[in-house]
Specification:
Blueprint (H helix, E strand, L loop, with lengths): L1 H30 L3 H11 L6 H13 L3 H14 L4 H11 L13 H10 L4 H24 L3 H34 L2 E4 L3 E5 L8 E6 L3 E6 L5 E5 L5 E5 L3 E3 L1
Antiparallel strand pairs: 1-4, 1-7, 2-3, 4-5, 5-6
Helix pairs in contact: 1-2, 2-3, 3-4, 4-5, 7-8
C-alpha cells in the first residue's frame, strides 16, 4: 500500500514538473520571438484546464504577430476568467485600438455602469472567498455581541454584523453574475476581415452594416446553428453567419 501511494506521489510530481517545464518552454519561445511555437505549447496547456494566464500569453503571441482578431479573442477569454487583472485589461484595450470599427457604446444609467465595474473587480473565486470571509466576520461579530457585557461593545459588534450581512449578499450576487458570464458565454469576436450583418438569417436578407475582424459582439439569439443574431454595444442588431464569429 505504501509503495502504491509512493508511486502515485511520484507520478503527480512528474506531471507537475512536465507542466512547469512545458510552460517554461513556451515562455522561452515567446522571449526568443518564436511565437508560433509558443502558441502551440500554450494551446496544449489549455487541455489541462482553462487559465487566464495562458489565454493572456496566447493573446500576446497573436498580438506580436499582428493577428489582432485572435489576440482580442484570447484577451477576452482571459478577462472572462480574471476580469480584475489590470494587464489583461490594458492589452485588450491596446488590441481593440487596432481594430477598424470604432463603435461608441450607448449611454446607460450610471448605477448600471457602477454595478458592472464593481462586478469586474474580481473573479468568481475572488468574490466567493470575500463572501466567506465576511460571513465568518459576521458570525464572529454576533458571537461577541452575545458574549460582551458592556453596551458599547455590544453595539459595535451588532452593527458590524449588520454591515457584513448585505456585503455577503452583494458578493454572492457579483459571483453569480460572473458565473453566468462563464457558463452562458454570449460574447463573441468577429474573426473574418469583413462581415455583412443582415436583417434576417438568410443570404438574401437586407444588408444592414459591415463589421470587421476583432469587433466584439453579443449573441442575442443562439437558436440556429448556421446563423446568430448579434448585438453591438451601440444597440445595433443583426444576423451573421456562425462561421464568421468565434465565441469567447
Amino acid at each position: 500500500m505504501r509503495k502504491l501511494l509512493l508511486l502515485f506521489c511520484m507520478a503527480g510530481m512528474m506531471s507537475v514538473g512536465m507542466s512547469a517545464q512545458t510552460k517554461s518552454e513556451a515562455d522561452s519561445a515567446f522571449v526568443h520571438e518564436e511565437y508560433e511555437k509558443a502558441i502551440a505549447i500554450y494551446t496544449g496547456l489549455l487541455e489541462q484546464g482553462e487559465s487566464a494566464d495562458i489565454y493572456y500569453n496566447i493573446g500576446n503571441c497573436y498580438y506580436k504577430t499582428d493577428q489582432i482578431a485572435k489576440a482580442i479573442l484570447n484577451y477576452e477569454r482571459a478577462a472572462l476568467l480574471d476580469p480584475g487583472d489590470a494587464n489583461i485589461r490594458f492589452n485588450l484595450a491596446m488590441a481593440r485600438n487596432k481594430t477598424v470599427d470604432k463603435i461608441i457604446p450607448h449611454t446607460e444609467m450610471f448605477f448600471i455602469t457602477w454595478f458592472n465595474q464593481i462586478t469586474d473587480w474580481m473573479s468568481i473565486d475572488g468574490w466567493a472567498y470575500t463572501a466567506i470571509v465576511l460571513f465568518v466576520c459576521m458570525l464572529g461579530a454576533l458571537l461577541f455581541y452575545f458574549l460582551m457585557n458592556r453596551v458599547i461593545w455590544k453595539k459595535i459588534f451588532f452593527y458590524t454584523a449588520v454591515v457584513c450581512l448585505p456585503l455577503v449578499i452583494l458578493c454572492n450576487v457579483f459571483a453569480r453574475r460572473q458565473k453566468t458570464r462563464l457558463t452562458e458565454r454570449t460574447v463573441a469576436v468577429v474573426m473574418q476581415p469583413s462581415v455583412v450583418v443582415r436583417s434576417t438569417p438568410t443570404q438574401s436578407g437586407t444588408d444592414l452594416f459591415i463589421l470587421h475582424e476583432g469587433t466584439r459582439v453579443e449573441i442575442t439569439d443562439d437558436s440556429m446553428e448556421e446563423w446568430k443574431e448579434v448585438k453591438l454595444v451601440d444597440g445595433k442588431v443583426g444576423w451573421v453567419l456562425s462561421s464568421d464569429i468565434e465565441r469567447v
